[in-house]
Amino acid sequence: MNAQPRLPHPIDLEKLEKLAEVAVKVGLNLAEGQDLVMTAPIEAQPLTRLISRYAYQAGAGVVTTLFNDPQATLERFEHGHDASFDKAANWLYEGMGHAFANGAARLAIAGDDPMLLAAQDADKVARANRAMSTAYKPALEKIAGFDINWNIVSYPTLAWAKTVFPGDPDGMAVAKLAKAIFAASRVDQPDPIAAWREHNDNLHARSAWLNAKRFSALRYTGRGTDLTIGLADEHEWSGGASMAKNGIVCNPNIPTEEVFTTPHRLRVEGHVSSTKPLSHQGTLIDDIRVEFSEGRIVKASAAKGESVLNKVLDTDEGARRLGEVALVPHSSPISASGILFYNTLFDENASCHIALGQCYSKCFLNGDTLSPDEIAARGGNLSLIHIDWMIGSDKIDIDGIDAAGNATPVMRGGEWAE
């Protein structure tokens, strides 16, 4: 009997290697002698090993990889004692915070099953998330404060691929998701590093235009939306590569299509509707509708996942306020792909979005010198969470409002006005 021909590997290994190189050289810009803490789904080992190779070639000190196993997570929810859902591995996150305080870089590989916890008890999911967020705070402060160079890239796991392409055979679904990840991450181009250099220049030009305007607020109008987002005092727009407080220029998100800044936590008024579903901790939250008064969400609903949304909003006081506002053209490559990724790293780059919760200190003039109290005094928000959700589309217009109340077109029909 003739042997069956071998099917091609569903993931283009040459492009996967380019993604690893981009993660180290563009995403992190890893410094010689710098340690690296990496987290990843256990299925992403082919990428973690390539990243480790490029990191050591760049002169890394020690690369430490922490894997998460989705099946082990399900075992907890199916068999764990009730009290366990109020606990987290504090020692682990304290250790990560200590590593970052001592100069380590951070790299996260996204690829978890978006629907992993969809069938689990929503209260247990919320409790576990709250415990993890509290434990993670020492590490998150170093990331949100941009003390260190950090980066997120993605790997096409089977469960994620089958969520995005449910009608395709396993190998085809993985191949299609891998191709979409590589395109969005610009590693399908002849010289990905040069492509990222050009892309960063474009994002920097957008940020410079917005910073020169010094808008005091943004006004969103369109289908299901009439929202005014006041901007924090002495805010600064950012996008693409930025310098961390340790002096290293890095690209935190790969891919990225956004320019973003900090809203004023007390100056958001009106109502807004989501334009894409939010996949959060295994639950799909769709058709979100919220109303703001004095910066705080006072009404919230969702056609799907409403109970999870309300539990998120009750995480802490800052969870009902905004920590980020970001502008993305509707024609961005990720939007143009027509793919719903069920992953915020990608879906947020298909649409203008806002984030509930923690602000970024880097989005202030001289933000690297400000204390937490000074950031709060300028309107920055504090929270255990930072969750982006999408509010932009080709039906939404955005105006910049200056201190005198004059309006300047920023986006029309989801595209840059100039």
N/C terminus separation? 66 Å
In the sheet with the most strands, the strands line up as: 14-13-10-6-5-18-19-20
Rg result? 21 Å
The counted number of beta strands is: 20
Apparent shape: globular
Structural class: alpha+beta
List keywords for this structure.
418 residues, alpha+beta, eight-stranded antiparallel β-sheet, four-stranded parallel β-sheet, 12 helices, 20 strands, 33% helix, globular
Describe the model:
- It is a single chain.
- This protein is an alpha+beta fold.
- Helix content is 33%, strand content 24%.
- The protein has an eight-stranded antiparallel β-sheet, covered by helices on one side.
- A hairpin with a 2-residue loop joins β13 and β14 (296-301).
- α1 (13-28) packs across α2, α4 runs parallel beside α5 (122-144) and α6 crosses α7 (170-184).
- It is globular, with a radius of gyration of 21 Å.
- The model is unreliable at 1-5 (pLDDT under 50).
List the SSEs and their pairings.
Elements: H1 13-28, E1 36-41, H2 45-57, E2 63-68, H3 70-79, H4 90-101, E3 105-110, H5 122-144, E4 150-154, H6 158-164, H7 170-184, H8 192-213, E5 217-222, E6 225-231, E7 242-243, E8 249-250, E9 259-261, E10 263-273, E11 278-280, E12 283-285, E13 289-293, E14 296-301, H9 306-313, E15 322-327, H10 333-336, H11 344-347, E16 353-357, H12 372-377, E17 386-390, E18 396-401, E19 407-412, E20 415-416
Parallel strand pairs: 1-2, 1-3, 3-4
Antiparallel strand pairs: 5-6, 5-18, 6-10, 7-8, 9-15, 10-13, 11-12, 13-14, 15-16, 16-17, 18-19, 19-20
Helix pairs in contact: 1-2, 4-5, 6-7
